[in-house]
Specification:
Structural class: alpha/beta
CATH topology of the largest domain: Rossmann fold
CATH architecture of the largest domain: 3-Layer(aba) Sandwich
Radius of gyration: 34 Å
CATH class of the largest domain: Alpha Beta
CATH superfamily of the largest domain: P-loop containing nucleotide triphosphate hydrolases
Strand order of the largest sheet: 5-6-7-3-8-9
Shape: globular
Number of strands: 18
Largest sheet: 6 strands, mixed
Distance between the termini: 78 Å
Strand content: 15-25%
């Protein structure tokens, strides 16, 4: 059922049409992802839905009783309040109800006391009790006895510790304020959530928690503006592309949208080519016969052609290409050459230990992604590798010679005296201005924007320009710290296309899981007090980590079963004291042991057969789970066999 609808809406600002006759319907329980270039009108759509903007034409309607919750990119919070109290303000109505109940409770107590003193209750006492019961039912229905627990769950899920609850909002970082605003919103029980870049400032664990919340705990619908393609793959039921003042809806998640968009573009390209061929053929006929014997026929064709063109029957504009960016790298890199070796590197700041004994190697052509929660030292590790800070222990060995390009999160390496295109041509003097502008265009510097001074660029524009410079410099080792921050999806795809052609090695810290899936071949997952290198991209590392956890769980259970003390048997009168069992299987008879051994061997045979199943072989998680179960079964078999041998020896 549609809960909010935009119908034939046009909206312009300063003569620029942002949305041109668009329609959109949002449904209860549906999660819609909004994608498109920065400035295409996605946030304008939200403000229309919130009725903060009036459309120039068309209508915006809501279903009766719709509660809309909105998370802007720059939320406003009470700086004087503590984190706990500001987030708790999401329960203002519940807290007001609680205060009314407390007041009624006092009135009931006073009424009862007055009644006792007079030898009988006043007539209003029963009415007060009825009012209290009614409020209590409302309080319970609204979750009044669980809101502190819900607040804890959401703040913890978004990465806040109990110690931070008492911090004033003014003391929080920009990222923490965004997370606090998100927590406050999620606690409001809105039936429709409008989330504008909700994963900005969230680390990888908090994003995973948000995905789970949206899919399993939020009962209503949501519309999400996001450049986080992995998030849209996990939660979106539909993708709406906002571009050129138009909306185009695609069913399914982001990956489905990419496939459908490409199919649509190819269809449009074929239609364009067919229509252009028809128009060219008609115009050729008209030109050849307009002044000859077939002049009337030529004039008739011209009239019909012009009428059809005016009616919009033909595709006159070539569909926009989304070809992968080719930069033509000149780096002279010998494939497989060892460029970097990190050996046992550790770092701490006072009592805070970031990481211990980190080791890995990186060769030309390899791409290693570093990810994990905030505060685990990922950026610090990069700074150690480039030589900005020293490790407490271990060493970083770099090939000699080695050209290295480092893109820090807060770099300040742009020349204020240069324009955007001059900055690129300085990095690559061999490029003509036309070639430099072509490269910049793929990173969304278009038209006169290439002549902007670097001093007037936004933070996102500066990030894009630094990336172009780094990549064009073609170092042997490219080190990038959160390279997709501030980039829209088109710019991210351009960066990924460039890196896929890059012949050197790439070492990158990133929370962008879609980027990591496309680019890296190994993942270093850093967590508090632990780290591990996984082969494959981010999704493969998740499967391997899940398999590791499952294997550890099975081994723990096997160890617990082994360690569980056997039930002592009461010895027969006059019988010698029984030896203490060496394992839980020692209490079984020979027949029972043999039956258990046969059962375990049958299960091992069954698992061995499943290893040959092609579906299992393609699924890393299933494969790892089977391996873990097989390992536990074999351990138990060895233990049972040892118990059987001891029992057989004793019988002899």
């Amino acid at each position: 059922m549609g809960v909010a609808r935009i119908e034939n809406v046009t909206k312009q600002f300063g003569g620029r049409v942002v949305l041109d006759g668009v329609s959109l319907e949002l449904h209860d329980g549906e999660i819609v992802g909004l994608v498109g270039p920065n400035g295409a009108g996605k946030t304008t759509l939200f403000r229309l839905l919130l009725r903060r903007f009036e459309p120039d034409s068309g209508s915006v309607t809501h279903s009766r009783g719709l509660r809309v919750g909105y998370l802007p990119q720059e939320p406003e919070l009470d700086s004087a309040a503590t984190l706990h109290d500001e987030v708790m303000s999401a329960f203002d109505e519940l807290l007001a109800l609680e205060r009314r109940m407390a007041g009624l409770s006092q009135q009931i107590a006073d009424s009862a006391a007055a009644g006792q003193a007079a030898g009988g209750g006043p007539a209003s006492h029963e009415e007060l009790l009825r009012q209290y019961d009614k409020l209590d039912m409302q309080f319970v229905a609204a979750g009044g006895y669980t809101f502190e627990q819900r607040l804890d769950e959401i703040l913890t899920g978004l990465g806040f510790s109990k110690e931070q609850y008492k911090l004033p909002v003014a003391a929080l970082s920009g990222g923490q304020k965004c997370r606090a605003a998100l927590a406050q919103l999620l606690l409001q029980d809105s039936s429709l959530l409008l989330l504008d870049e909700p994963t900005n400032h969230l680390d990888i664990d908090a994003v995973a928690w948000l995905e789970g919340f949206l899919k399993t705990q939020h009962p209503g619908g949501a519309a999400i503006i996001s450049h986080d393609r992995y998030l849209l793959d996990r939660v979106a039921d539909r993708i709406v592309e906002v571009e050129g003042g138009r909306l185009t809806s695609y069913p399914g998640n982001y990956s489905n949208y990419v496939k459908a968009r490409e199919l649509r573009r190819l269809t449009q390209q074929r239609e364009y080519e067919k229509d252009q061929a028809f128009i060219a053929k008609e115009r050729d006929f008209i030109a050849r016969h307009i002044a000859g014997q077939r002049t009337n026929e030529a004039k008739g064709r011209r009239t019909r052609l012009e009428r059809r063109i005016a009616a919009g029957e033909f595709t006159l504009e070539r569909p926009r290409e989304r070809a992968r960016l080719k930069l033509g790298f000149d780096a002279d890199v010998r494939e497989g050459r060892l460029l970097l070796r990190v050996r046992g590197v550790s770092k701490a700041y006072g009592e805070l230990r970031l990481f211990d004994d980190v080791s890995f190697e990186l060769r030309a052509g390899q791409r290693l992604g570093i990810t994990g929660p905030n505060g685990t030292g990922k950026s610090t590790l990069l700074r150690i590798i480039v030589g900005e800070i020293m490790p407490d222990a271990g060493a970083v060995e770099r090939a000699a010679p080695l050209t290295m390009g480092y893109g820090a999160q807060e770099a300040v390496d742009l020349d204020p005296a240069r324009s955007v295109v001059q900055e690129i041509m300085h990095a690559r003097p061999d490029l003509t201005e036309a070639a430099a502008r072509n490269v910049l265009g793929r990173f969304r510097f278009r038209g006169d924007e290439v002549f902007k001074p670097t001093t007037v660029l936004s933070g996102g524009e500066q990030s894009r320009l630094r990336l172009v410079k780094l990549i064009l410099g073609a170092p042997e080792l490219l080190i990038l710290d959160e390279p997709t921050n501030h980039l829209d999806i088109d710019a991210r795809e351009a960066l990924e296309g460039a890196l896929l052609d890059y012949p050197g090695a790439v070492l990158t810290v990133s929370h962008d899981r879609y980027f990591l899936d496309r680019i890296v071949s190994r993942v270093l997952l850093m967590r508090s007090g632990a780290h591990k290198v996984y082969d494959g991209n981010y999704s493969a590392s998740l499967a391997q980590r899940a398999a590791d956890e499952e294997r550890a769980r099975l081994l723990r259970e096997a160890a617990a079963r082994t360690a569980r003390p056997a039930e002592p048997r009461r010895p027969a009168a006059g019988a010698p004291a029984a030896r203490k069992p060496r394992s839980r299987f020692d209490r079984l008879t020979l027949e029972e042991l043999e039956a258990e051994i046969i059962r375990h061997e049958a299960r091992v045979a069954e698992l061995t057969e499943r290893f040959g199943d092609p579906e299992v072989a393609r699924d890393r998680a299933k494969l790892a789970g089977l391996s873990a179960e097989m390992e536990a079964l074999r351990a138990e078999l060895a233990e049972m066999q040892a118990a059987w041998n001891r029992r057989a020896d004793a019988a002899e």
